[in-house]
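Researcher: Last one for today. Full complex below.
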Amino acid sequence: KQEVTQIPAALSVPEGENLVLNCSFTDSAIYNLQWFRQDPGKGLTSLLLIQSSQREQTSGRLNASLDKSSGRSTLYIAASQPGDSATYLCAVRQNAGNMLTFGGGTRLMVKP
Amino acid sequence: EADIYQTPRYLVIGTGKKITLECSQTMGHDKMYWYQQDPGMELHLIHYSYGVNSTEKGDLSSESTVSRIRTEHFPLTLESARPSHTSQYLCASSGTHSPLHFGNGTRLTVT
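Model: Here's the assembly. Have a good evening.
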């Protein structure tokens, strides 16, 4: 059974710092991996989707990488801002027809 | 933004009442999901559907039921609400190769 782990569980940084959030998964035979952002009391917003054949995806200040062989993905946030404060979740899909397995999330706080 | 809608946004209801949480998407996605999430806690899949007339239970046992009569509509029903059902319920949908899109959720409180 696939297990997804996110470390750290919580992170507090000053504004302007570059930071890396980590996601690891136990079964490397994945179909794709997705990063989400969740604000308190809200649903999840999709940030980036990486297919199994891809190594990275970029959107604005966000860059997500995927290393299937080692079972890892990282989300890099450049020049962090207070508005980036949220919980970030990664989720993996085993195959095209299967559901996602979510990590526990990293709760990020960016202080002004 | 993704076109997936959940109503109501907030619901406070007494024990024993029957409730239906609505979820609709306009993207033509075949797959739809219901997750339950307590504040600050992990998401738990309670129901999913891979198409019309197809529904399955998820990883977390739930007393709720779902139906999928139309592609765009995936309502969740609790026949008799209890305080233990107090939680946030998140609906999501995806196509075969597309990202998973979430609604804004329904925050349910059962008194």
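The mean pLDDT of chain A is 94. The radius of gyration of chain A is 13 Å.
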